[in-house]
Design a protein that fits this description.
Length: 165
């Protein structure tokens, strides 16, 4: 992709890249906070190293922390880009860009993380508290949820933004 095309793409939807980065990061935070910590369904590497001893739990907790650090970088970068965009004069951001980009980024996170970590690498599964024969259904549900969010985000982004009053 040429630099001209990249510039042209970013001018078509100002604010889209930061919104997608925020969605990716928030998707990661949701996964880590809700599924890893609150529900305790899995940890980052719990299918490879079950958290059934203190040293294993410590290693899983470290991996969870590194995962959270990466999602923090995504969110911080998205916020920085939004702030930088607000400082420069340019095309206004359409009202559908933030919700559409957030939803698309969140869904993309679920699809990529689910496909790679659950299926390709087998690092963990969505709900490891159920019988292992049911893990696949939870993993497929996670991918379906991610696809629905991604499609919903794209639909919002392609829709005509609501009029400003």
């Amino acid at each position: 992709m040429t630099a001209e095309r990249v510039q042209h793409s970013s001018n078509e939807k100002p604010g889209l890249a930061p919104a997608i980065l925020l969605g990716l990061g928030l998707g990661g935070f949701f996964d880590g906070i809700v599924l890893h910590q609150i529900l305790q369904w899995h940890h980052m590497i719990s299918a490879r190293l079950p958290a059934d001893t203190v040293p294993s739990l410590q290693m899983n907790t470290l991996e969870d922390g590194l995962f959270h650090a990466a999602t923090y970088v995504l969110v911080a970068t998205g916020v920085f880009l939004i702030w930088r965009g607000a400082q420069t004069a340019g095309a206004p951001v359409a009202r559908n860009v933030l919700p559409g980009g957030l939803l698309a980024g969140f869904g993309a996170f679920n699809l990529v993380e689910g496909a790679i970590n659950h299926h390709l690498l087998g690092l963990h599964h969505v709900n490891e508290t159920v019988v292992s024969e049911h893990w696949l259904w939870w993993d497929l549900g996670f991918l379906t949820w991610g696809a629905a969010m991604l499609i919903g985000g794209v639909v919002i982004l392609r829709s005509r933004p609501p009029r400003t009053r």
